[in-house]
Design a protein that fits this description.
The protein has 225 residues and is of the alpha+beta class. It has two domains: 2-157, Jelly Rolls, CATH 2.60.120.10; 162-223, Winged helix-like DNA-binding domain superfamily/Winged helix DNA-binding domain (Arc Repressor Mutant, subunit A, Orthogonal Bundle). It has helices spanning 11-14, 28-34, 91-96, 119-122, 132-157, 162-171, 187-194, 198-210, and strands at 2-4, 38-42, 47-49, 58-63, 66-71, 77-83, 88-89, 104-107, 111-116, 180-182, 214-217, 220-223. A five-stranded antiparallel beta sheet has the order 1-2-9-4-7. β11 and β12 (220-223) form a beta hairpin. The longest helix has 26 residues, at 132-157.
């Protein structure tokens, strides 16, 4: 890991970040100063955040892919989500700045990340660029979306039948113009996300294809019913 001094090459990605909605690009320097922003490069397989260590910052993936996961009571890794270029992560935990992180964040590829101190938004500190209220509104929307995602995960986990877990997840994704759903996981990562065995997932997807319930094309799946 090392610090990157120039973020300007990543402005096309940063400008699409939900936290910065309705904030002009020319005001970014003062906003980033307010949020104590730092840009860091992580090599593949390097940890951005380790389990049990203090989690103080949220982040924006400027380039690459990060995996968020935790360890279950039976010491199995449970994949929570993959964060690709343009995605932000760890907003809820960064707001409270937990002293013992319940999650770990690992670079699946070489990654460049902008780290942000979101607690500044909730503090009495004043942003001299007058965008603190906008940041607050954007953060509330992000946290609300994360709550919806957490409810989806809980609903999936409560299903005892593997096929139900698969269908609930697929129905949560928006299909493209051809009706295909783009799954953002490898099959191994999807199995971890659903909390099931990879072989069982592969077998069930095969059964669903044989029953003409779905059509699979790589990471694309089409519901046929």
């Amino acid at each position: 890991m090392h610090t990157v001094t120039n973020y300007e090459e990543f402005l096309p990605v940063i400008s699409k970040t939900k936290l910065l909605n309705n904030i002009p690009v020319e005001h970014y320097p003062r906003v980033f100063q307010f949020l104590e922003a730092t840009v860091r490069f992580y090599e593949k397989d390097e940890f951005i955040q380790r389990l049990g260590e203090p989690l103080l910052y949220s982040g924006i993936v400027l380039d690459g892919t990060i995996e968020g996961s935790f360890i279950s009571e039976s010491y199995n890794k449970i994949n929570m989500n993959h964060f690709h270029t343009g995605r932000s992560f760890a907003e809820s935990l960064a707001c409270v700045q937990t002293s013992h992180s319940p999650i770990q964040l690992k670079a699946l590829t070489n990654c460049t990340v902008m780290l942000l101190n979101l607690k500044q938004i909730l503090s009495d500190s004043k942003c001299d660029c007058s965008h603190q209220q906008t940041l607050s509104v954007n953060l509330i929307k992000i946290l609300a979306s994360q709550n919806v995602f957490s409810n989806l995960k809980l609903r999936i986990a409560n299903q005892k039948v593997l096929r139900d877990r698969i269908l609930i997840y697929l129905h949560s994704l928006i299909p493209d113009s051809n009706g295909y759903i783009h799954v953002p996981f490898t099959q191994t990562a999807l199995a971890e996300f659903l909390g099931v065995n990879r072989s069982a997932l592969s077998r069930e997807l095969g059964n669903m294809q044989n029953e003409e319930l779905i059509s699979v094309d790589g990471k694309k799946i089409k519901l046929l019913f």
